[in-house]
Amino acid sequence: GPAAAAADWYALVLELSPDCADARAAIAAAALDAGDHATVVTETSRVLKVSPGHLQALLLRGRAYYALGDVAAAKTLLQEGLRRDPEHAELKAAYRIAKDFEKKSSKAEAAASTGDWAAASAAYDAALSVSPLPEGRGVELRAGLCAALARHNAE
Protein backbone atom coordinates (compact mmCIF):
# COMPACT_ATOMS: atom_id res chain seq x y z
CA GLY A 1 0.00 0.00 0.00
CA PRO A 2 0.92 3.67 0.20
CA ALA A 3 2.75 3.32 3.54
CA ALA A 4 5.01 0.60 2.16
CA ALA A 5 5.70 2.66 -0.97
CA ALA A 6 6.59 5.67 1.18
CA ALA A 7 8.88 3.53 3.36
CA ASP A 8 10.65 2.25 0.23
CA TRP A 9 11.08 5.81 -1.04
CA TYR A 10 12.55 7.03 2.27
CA ALA A 11 14.88 4.01 2.38
CA LEU A 12 16.13 4.93 -1.09
CA VAL A 13 16.61 8.58 -0.11
CA LEU A 14 18.56 7.56 3.00
CA GLU A 15 20.67 5.14 0.98
CA LEU A 16 21.68 8.01 -1.29
CA SER A 17 21.88 10.63 1.47
CA PRO A 18 22.05 9.13 4.99
CA ASP A 19 21.91 12.57 6.63
CA CYS A 20 18.70 13.71 4.91
CA ALA A 21 16.93 15.31 7.88
CA ASP A 22 13.54 15.60 6.18
CA ALA A 23 13.46 11.90 5.23
CA ARG A 24 14.41 10.89 8.78
CA ALA A 25 11.76 13.26 10.17
CA ALA A 26 9.16 11.65 7.89
CA ILE A 27 10.18 8.21 9.15
CA ALA A 28 9.87 9.50 12.72
CA ALA A 29 6.40 10.91 11.98
CA ALA A 30 5.26 7.55 10.61
CA ALA A 31 6.73 5.81 13.66
CA LEU A 32 4.89 8.19 15.99
CA ASP A 33 1.63 7.46 14.17
CA ALA A 34 2.33 3.74 14.67
CA GLY A 35 3.13 4.22 18.37
CA ASP A 36 6.78 3.22 17.87
CA HIS A 37 8.28 5.77 20.24
CA ALA A 38 11.75 4.18 20.31
CA THR A 39 12.09 4.70 16.55
CA VAL A 40 10.90 8.30 16.91
CA VAL A 41 13.58 8.97 19.53
CA THR A 42 16.28 7.30 17.41
CA GLU A 43 15.38 9.03 14.14
CA THR A 44 14.90 12.46 15.68
CA SER A 45 18.25 12.10 17.44
CA ARG A 46 19.85 11.61 14.03
CA VAL A 47 17.97 14.59 12.60
CA LEU A 48 18.93 16.88 15.47
CA LYS A 49 22.58 15.82 15.18
CA VAL A 50 22.77 17.16 11.60
CA SER A 51 20.16 19.91 11.98
CA PRO A 52 19.94 21.05 15.64
CA GLY A 53 17.00 23.41 15.20
CA HIS A 54 14.82 21.12 13.08
CA LEU A 55 11.34 22.07 14.32
CA GLN A 56 9.58 18.92 13.11
CA ALA A 57 12.17 16.74 14.87
CA LEU A 58 11.79 18.71 18.10
CA LEU A 59 8.01 18.38 17.88
CA LEU A 60 8.06 14.65 17.13
CA ARG A 61 10.66 13.93 19.81
CA GLY A 62 8.68 16.00 22.34
CA ARG A 63 5.49 14.11 21.52
CA ALA A 64 7.30 10.77 21.81
CA TYR A 65 8.75 11.62 25.22
CA TYR A 66 5.34 12.87 26.39
CA ALA A 67 3.71 9.65 25.22
CA LEU A 68 6.38 7.66 27.07
CA GLY A 69 5.57 9.58 30.26
CA ASP A 70 8.66 11.82 30.40
CA VAL A 71 6.72 15.06 30.55
CA ALA A 72 9.71 17.15 31.69
CA ALA A 73 11.82 16.07 28.69
CA ALA A 74 8.86 16.67 26.39
CA LYS A 75 8.39 20.20 27.70
CA THR A 76 12.11 20.97 27.30
CA LEU A 77 12.10 19.85 23.65
CA LEU A 78 8.87 21.68 22.84
CA GLN A 79 10.15 24.86 24.55
CA GLU A 80 13.32 24.67 22.47
CA GLY A 81 11.19 24.54 19.33
CA LEU A 82 9.05 27.45 20.52
CA ARG A 83 12.15 29.55 21.21
CA ARG A 84 13.04 29.08 17.54
CA ASP A 85 9.50 29.70 16.27
CA PRO A 86 7.11 31.11 18.92
CA GLU A 87 4.15 30.98 16.53
CA HIS A 88 4.50 27.31 15.48
CA ALA A 89 0.93 26.06 16.04
CA GLU A 90 1.72 22.37 16.53
CA LEU A 91 4.54 23.07 18.98
CA LYS A 92 2.29 25.45 20.92
CA ALA A 93 -0.52 22.89 21.10
CA ALA A 94 1.77 20.04 22.18
CA TYR A 95 3.45 22.26 24.79
CA ARG A 96 0.06 23.35 26.18
CA ILE A 97 -0.99 19.72 26.63
CA ALA A 98 2.26 18.77 28.40
CA LYS A 99 2.13 21.86 30.62
CA ASP A 100 -1.55 21.28 31.45
CA PHE A 101 -0.91 17.65 32.37
CA GLU A 102 2.10 18.53 34.52
CA LYS A 103 0.21 21.29 36.33
CA LYS A 104 -2.88 19.17 37.03
CA SER A 105 -1.02 16.02 38.08
CA SER A 106 1.32 18.04 40.35
CA LYS A 107 -1.67 19.73 41.95
CA ALA A 108 -3.26 16.33 42.62
CA GLU A 109 -0.08 14.93 44.17
CA ALA A 110 0.38 18.05 46.32
CA ALA A 111 -3.20 17.90 47.62
CA ALA A 112 -2.87 14.19 48.38
CA SER A 113 0.42 14.73 50.23
CA THR A 114 -1.26 17.26 52.54
CA GLY A 115 -4.30 15.05 53.13
CA ASP A 116 -6.73 17.38 51.36
CA TRP A 117 -8.69 14.49 49.86
CA ALA A 118 -11.52 16.57 48.37
CA ALA A 119 -9.04 18.76 46.48
CA ALA A 120 -6.96 15.71 45.54
CA SER A 121 -10.03 13.96 44.10
CA ALA A 122 -10.94 16.99 42.01
CA ALA A 123 -7.34 17.46 40.85
CA TYR A 124 -6.87 13.78 39.91
CA ASP A 125 -10.12 13.97 37.96
CA ALA A 126 -8.90 17.13 36.20
CA ALA A 127 -5.56 15.48 35.34
CA LEU A 128 -7.41 12.50 33.87
CA SER A 129 -9.28 14.88 31.56
CA VAL A 130 -6.07 15.88 29.74
CA SER A 131 -5.96 14.25 26.33
CA PRO A 132 -3.88 12.43 25.40
CA LEU A 133 -2.49 11.06 28.66
CA PRO A 134 1.14 9.94 28.80
CA GLU A 135 1.63 6.18 28.66
CA GLY A 136 1.07 4.52 32.02
CA ARG A 137 0.02 7.71 33.75
CA GLY A 138 -3.72 7.02 33.42
CA VAL A 139 -3.42 3.98 35.68
CA GLU A 140 -1.36 5.96 38.19
CA LEU A 141 -3.87 8.83 38.21
CA ARG A 142 -6.88 6.51 38.53
CA ALA A 143 -5.22 4.78 41.49
CA GLY A 144 -4.62 8.17 43.10
CA LEU A 145 -8.21 9.20 42.43
CA CYS A 146 -9.57 5.99 43.97
CA ALA A 147 -7.39 6.41 47.07
CA ALA A 148 -8.38 10.07 47.44
CA LEU A 149 -12.08 9.28 47.04
CA ALA A 150 -11.88 6.43 49.55
CA ARG A 151 -10.14 8.61 52.14
CA HIS A 152 -12.44 11.56 51.46
CA ASN A 153 -15.53 9.36 51.88
CA ALA A 154 -14.10 7.89 55.11
CA GLU A 155 -13.79 11.35 56.69
Q: What is the name of the CATH superfamily of the largest domain?
A: Tetratricopeptide repeat domain
User: What's the CATH topology label of the largest domain?
Assistant: Serine Threonine Protein Phosphatase 5, Tetratricopeptide repeat
Q: Major sheet: size, sense and barrel closure?
A: none
Gyration radius over CA: 19 Å
Find the count of extended strands (DSSP E, 2+ residues).
Answer: 0
The helix-strand sequence is HHHHHHHH
Total helices: the number is: 8
Shape: elongated
Give the overall pLDDT as a whole number: 92
In CATH, what is the class of the largest domain? Mainly Alpha
InterPro entries: TPR-like_helical_dom_sf, TPR_rpt
Pfam family, one: TPR_19
Protein name: ER membrane protein complex subunit 2
TPR repeats: 55-88
Structure commentary:
The chain is elongated, with a radius of gyration of 19 Å. The protein has helices at about 1-15, 20-35, 35-50, 55-65, 70-85, 90-115, 115-130, 135-155. It is built from 8 helices and no strands. Helix 1 (about 1-15) packs antiparallel against helix 2 (about 20-35) and helix 3 (about 35-50) runs antiparallel to helix 4. The protein is mainly alpha-helical and about 160 residues long. The N and C termini lie far apart (about 60 Å).
